[in-house]
Design brief:
Layout (H helix, E strand, L loop, with lengths): L14 E9 L5 E12 L10 H16 L3 E8 L4 E3 L4 H8 L3 H19 L5 E5 L2 E3 L1 H8 L2 E5 L3 E3 L2 H4 L7 H9 L1 H10 L3 E2 H7 L4 E3 L2 E3 L2 E3 L9 E2 L5 E2 L6 H13 L1 E2 L2 H15 L3 H33 L3 H11 L9 H9 L6 H7 L6 H8 L1
Parallel strand pairs: 2-3, 3-5, 4-6, 5-7, 6-8, 7-10
Antiparallel strand pairs: 1-2, 8-9, 11-12, 11-15, 13-14
Helix pairs in contact: 1-3, 2-12, 3-11, 6-7
Length: about 375
């Protein structure tokens, strides 16, 4: 049989690829078949994707799609803190800010990564082992299934840091949660707990990942039961505040994160997929993906063009502010920015220095280097 891979024997430090057993209904490994695990491996930076990682992801998905023995693809992140927190802001600030042409080429890679998920000939399961934020949320929603640790959080970050969630979230979010909730997530960039996102219809299932004194417990930071507040609103899955949050943090500090149940849930799903006709399964998945692809294919190229040009203005300021800022201050002065633009200020280093004075000037840096 012919080798249809673009690159065979993929080796990448940023993306780890492994074959793991697929189990039959009795829990036994099936001879001659396996699942392909693709792991984003950049734990130091919360598995944020870099240019090499995107290249590795595209090639890994292509190879997994062509793997005749593969039952399913599992896309996940290394460690327990994050699945993926989006684009690597260090790289954005140092290599792409102010360089729209370069960022346009980079966004071609990201778009191709999303498309590779949507066109994979195998079902793609997102194993959400931690935070799924920004572009990580976009990669995750492109997948066919999402099984999450209930400690995971889900959010967008673009409008807070100089971008728009146009790498898939503006296309996919309304399909998952409806236009009103999508609008709130995409614009306000507030965190959803796994319990919230599951209740909105955004996840296949969630499982506990915290063990305290040997017992599995639900995420103590999230309200995991339905509550009616003083305004008659139903609250479920929201993050606790005040003394309740402090008590929850103390409880978490006593426990350990254990993803055993997450792996069991992934294995259970792949077993169920095993007992289907492979071509009928692929056709069903492709037909359901069309609802995502309809929006994705319509918008991805014009969105890529806008995002690249935005690297000259708000992204230039926002990503550099985030990268060079402190934990307490990583956002520009939004009010001052609006005021200065209303007065007719022109985008450039002078304006960026006003709204984020801790950001090193690229002009000064280039002068020193010369």
């Amino acid at each position: 049989m012919n080798d249809h891979n673009l690159v065979s024997g993929l080796v990448s430090q940023a993306v780890a690829v492994s074959h793991r057993a697929v189990l039959d209904r009795d829990g036994n490994p099936v001879n001659g078949l396996h699942n392909v695990w693709i792991t984003l491996d950049n734990q130091k930076e919360l598995n944020s994707y870099t240019t090499p990682m995107l290249k590795g992801l595209i090639l890994a998905l292509r190879e997994a799609s062509n793997d005749r023995a593969a039952v399913a693809v599992i896309l996940t992140g290394a460690g327990t803190a994050a699945f993926c927190t989006g684009g690597n802001t260090r790289q954005y600030a140092e290599e792409y800010a102010g360089r729209p042409g370069e960022y346009r080429q980079y966004m071609r890679l990201f778009n191709d990564a999303v498309t590779s998920i949507l066109q994979c000939d195998k079902p793609v399961i997102c194993r959400v082992n931690g935070m799924r934020v920004g572009g990580g949320q976009e990669l995750g929603m492109a997948c066919d299934f999402s099984i999450a640790s209930d400690l995971a959080i889900f959010s967008q970050a673009g409008p807070k840091h100089g971008s728009a969630p146009d790498g898939g979230s503006t296309d996919f979010l309304p399909l998952f949660v409806g236009i009103e909730r999508a609008m709130a997530s995409a614009t306000l960039c507030q965190n959803w707990s796994a319990h919230q996102f599951y209740s909105f219809g955004g996840l296949t299932t969630i499982v506990p990942a915290l063990r305290v004194d040997g017992t599995w417990i639900a995420n103590p930071l999230a309200i995991t039961h339905r509550v009616i507040d003083e305004f008659g609103r139903t609250i479920f899955g929201q993050m606790k505040t005040g003394p309740e949050r402090d008590a929850a943090k103390a409880l978490m500090a006593r426990g350990t994160v254990d993803l055993t149940l997450l792996d069991d849930a992934v294995a259970d799903l792949t077993t169920k997929l095993l007992y289907t006709m492979p071509d009928c399964l692929t056709k069903t998945i492709e037909s359901l993906r069309k609802h995502k692809l309809e929006h994705w294919d319509r918008n991805r190229e014009t969105n890529r063009a806008w995002l690249s040009l935005n690297m000259m203005t708000e992204a230039n300021a926002g990503f550099r502010a985030f990268h060079h800022g402190t934990k307490q201050q990583r956002e520009v002065d939004f009010i001052l920015l609006r005021q200065r633009l209303a007065e007719g200020a022109v985008w450039g280093e002078e304006l960026i220095e006003e709204i984020a004075p801790w950001v090193p000037s690229t002009v000064a840096k280039e002068t020193v280097e010369v």
